[in-house]
């Protein structure tokens, strides 16, 4: 799949097959083909305009945002993250600690998630009271959380929000955060 032109990708570092090999050796599996194709086609990913992707489930942050996608050295550096589930790698980064992860193992292999590194899921009523102007979708998330109405998620995924079932689907869901 050719990558969408609306990404307006600005390469950061050239594609380096040795870093891919380092990542795969560290995680014990090969990277999904869709991600590898993207990295090769874009010469290693890079910076993008502010982009958003709607998650498939309610979130405490609205849409997921990114400004960088596919930084291989960054992926390698974050493999030992305390926040990222062990079956995932970080593939994109956005504002305010927003991170996008790709599952590389397990029943959700290939799925793309927004990882909320701020762990908003656990915010208390006191914390929420400090943000009186939250978007309606965010207020609804916390209402659902407090009412036990959120969709059930596997243990360890409390701060992961499904965006897409595949990397290619993820790319098609990305859209500019503002109009030119």
TrEMBL record:
This is Knr4/Smi1-like domain-containing protein. InterPro entries: Knr4/Smi1-like_dom (IPR018958), Knr4/Smi1-like_sf (IPR037883). It holds the Pfam family SMI1_KNR4. SUPFAM superfamilies: SMI1/KNR4-like (SSF160631). It comes from Novipirellula rosea. Residues 16-143 form the Knr4/Smi1-like domain.
């Amino acid at each position: 799949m050719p990558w969408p032109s609306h990404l307006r990708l600005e390469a950061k570092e050239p594609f380096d097959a040795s870093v891919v090999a380092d990542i795969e050796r560290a995680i014990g599996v090969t990277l999904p083909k869709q991600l590898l194709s993207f990295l090769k086609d874009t010469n290693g990913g890079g910076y993008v305009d502010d982009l958003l992707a709607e998650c498939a489930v309610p979130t405490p942050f609205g849409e997921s945002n990114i400004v960088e996608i596919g930084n291989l050295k960054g992926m390698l550096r974050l493999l030992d993250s305390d926040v990222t589930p062990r079956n995932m790698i970080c593939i994109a980064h956005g504002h305010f600690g927003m991170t996008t992860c790709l599952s590389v193992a397990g029943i959700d292999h290939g799925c793309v998630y927004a990882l909320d590194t701020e762990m908003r899921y656990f915010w208390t009523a006191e914390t929420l009271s400090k943000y009186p102007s939250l978007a309606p979708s965010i207020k609804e998330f916390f209402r659902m959380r407090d009412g036990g109405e959120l969709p059930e998620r596997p243990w360890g995924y409390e701060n992961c929000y499904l965006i897409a079932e595949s990397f290619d689907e993820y790319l098609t869901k990305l859209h500019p955060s503002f109009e030119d």
